[in-house]
Design goal:
Strand order of the largest sheet: 1-3-2
Strand content: 25-35%
Number of strands: 3
Radius of gyration: 12 Å
Helix content: 25-40%
Number of domains: 1
Oligomer: single chain
């Protein structure tokens, strides 16, 4: 299985590094809530709930 995290850096508010850090901390902290043995995906949203990417688990 592979875990893919795709974020459109141009879609992040400034400063980009602060928002990217928040997204990465959020997803790293929540990975235990997902079944990583089955293919799945969902969108990634920034701090104002705009879609800025996606994550997915693939075989």
């Amino acid at each position: 299985m592979r875990f893919h995290l795709e974020i459109d850096l141009d879609a992040l508010p400034q400063p980009q590094d602060a928002e990217l850090g928040r997204i990465l901390r959020y997803w790293a902290g929540n990975l235990s809530h997902y079944d990583l043995t089955a293919e799945t995906s969902d969108s990634i949203r920034n701090s104002v709930y705009e879609e800025v990417g996606c994550w997915r688990v693939t075989a």
